[in-house]
Amino acid sequence: MTVSELPPTKDEIDPKNSPNELTHDVVFGEITEDGPNYRNVGFVGTIILMMKTQIGLGVLSIPTALDTLGIVPGVICLCVIACICTWSNYIIGTFKLNHREVYGIDDAGALMFGPTGRGVLSVAFCLYWVFVSGSGILGVSIGFNAVSSHGACTAVFSAVAAILGFTLSSVRTLGRITWLAWVGLPCILTAVMIVTVAVGIQDRPAAAPKADEPWVSDYKIIGHPSFTEAITAVCSLVFAFSGTPGFFAIVSEMRDPRKYTPALLVCQAGVTAIYIVIGCVVYYYCGSYVSSPALGSAGGDVKKICYGFALPGLIVTTTICSHIPAKYIFVHILRGSRHLNSNSVTHWVTWLSCTSGIAIVAYLIASSVPVFDSLVSLIGALLGTLMCFQPMGCMWLYDNWAKGRKSSRYWIPMVCWSVFVVLIGCFITVAGTYGSIVGIIDSYRESGGSAAFSCADNSNST
């Protein structure tokens, strides 16, 4: 079977075999009927996977970020981050076409900076996705608590979420996981639309004080946060778009990577529009009483309905965010070996060890930092920008620096833009990590240090 629509190079086709029976991929090696087809994601599937890597946990923190920054500064920051991340995502596609041997961000780091670049970016990549998987487990535990009215210990719900994530993420190819994204994306969108409509028709949000007089939202056009509060909110917005590092794996498993850019533009336009509409409407009606995650803002039975719809989407988010780092580790362990594309015992033991290891570590993270906003902002600051900003600026410079200003009239502006992306990413990383850590310390002080591995209901945060 032919798994790539790209014109084959002399290194991609084994002359001893018919193209209809065997294709050689630079990353995955020989792909045959006897093993998993790693190049089987179509155009529409690509859009759905891209959107699902982003729409999930991030959208649930946007109203809270707008509460900190104010609607106008918040939307401006959201649009700026969307533009930077869209450009970064575009660079991933062009870099992959220019360097077919690249599978992950660490391969790009190795091309640009040698073994040091590979080491730093590979560790950051794995940590990032494990932390995102942890936030997914935390989101699922919140959903279980909300639907069941805290029917069991939160630590138990987190363990159930980790087991579900491990089981579903053990499906070996993104092509076979695409159907989960088709389920998860409509579910999470339905949930956020329900809460958006509900807060608009209710007389007050669930967390607002009860009184006889009509309630008026205290939303802010322009907020006045402290520096740490502002940078923490910005990091939450970065997290909302930080599916970027997963796009390396998606383009690597596309049947035709040349369709990557059109798929990306559809994805980013849809994601940005959804974020702006939902974030603004929910915050406008809830004001400072918006819940975190936002699905709890309407309260009561609506809260249960929202989380009932959202749970499949949150589980799929956990699945994809566990699958990507597990696949990354798996490919790097068996790359160049016959076991990568076979159904051997070594293949399955290695694969299941990767998925189970990711699930265990993610569970520990979710239980250790059980405050949704704090975990989201920490991921966005410490690892999100390092995965979405700095490497992509360097990737453009790597491919285009030697061409010089004579190659294009846009060369100098693009150099300036690439350097800007690197510098702003470094600033957010340092400042945002500081702000997020301060927020986590404050939350532990409020709980008396008893937040980790707690049985308490975590679905009533505001």
From TrEMBL:
<dbReference type="GO" id="GO:0015179">
    <property type="term" value="F:L-amino acid transmembrane transporter activity"/>
</dbReference>
<dbReference type="InterPro" id="IPR013057">
    <property type="entry name" value="AA_transpt_TM"/>
</dbReference>
<feature type="transmembrane region" description="Helical">
    <location>
        <begin position="410"/>
        <end position="434"/>
    </location>
</feature>
<feature type="transmembrane region" description="Helical">
    <location>
        <begin position="148"/>
        <end position="168"/>
    </location>
</feature>
<feature type="transmembrane region" description="Helical">
    <location>
        <begin position="263"/>
        <end position="285"/>
    </location>
</feature>
<feature type="transmembrane region" description="Helical">
    <location>
        <begin position="230"/>
        <end position="251"/>
    </location>
</feature>
<feature type="region of interest" description="Disordered">
    <location>
        <begin position="1"/>
        <end position="20"/>
    </location>
</feature>
<feature type="transmembrane region" description="Helical">
    <location>
        <begin position="120"/>
        <end position="142"/>
    </location>
</feature>
<dbReference type="GO" id="GO:0016020">
    <property type="term" value="C:membrane"/>
</dbReference>
<feature type="transmembrane region" description="Helical">
    <location>
        <begin position="68"/>
        <end position="92"/>
    </location>
</feature>
<feature type="transmembrane region" description="Helical">
    <location>
        <begin position="41"/>
        <end position="62"/>
    </location>
</feature>
<feature type="transmembrane region" description="Helical">
    <location>
        <begin position="180"/>
        <end position="201"/>
    </location>
</feature>
<keyword id="KW-0472">Membrane</keyword>
<feature type="domain" description="Amino acid transporter transmembrane">
    <location>
        <begin position="45"/>
        <end position="437"/>
    </location>
</feature>
<feature type="transmembrane region" description="Helical">
    <location>
        <begin position="345"/>
        <end position="366"/>
    </location>
</feature>
<keyword id="KW-1133">Transmembrane helix</keyword>
<protein>
    <recommendedName>
        <fullName>Amino acid transporter transmembrane domain-containing protein</fullName>
    </recommendedName>
</protein>
<comment type="similarity">
    <text>Belongs to the amino acid/polyamine transporter 2 family.</text>
</comment>
<keyword id="KW-0812">Transmembrane</keyword>
<feature type="transmembrane region" description="Helical">
    <location>
        <begin position="305"/>
        <end position="324"/>
    </location>
</feature>
<dbReference type="Pfam" id="PF01490">
    <property type="entry name" value="Aa_trans"/>
</dbReference>
<feature type="transmembrane region" description="Helical">
    <location>
        <begin position="378"/>
        <end position="398"/>
    </location>
</feature>
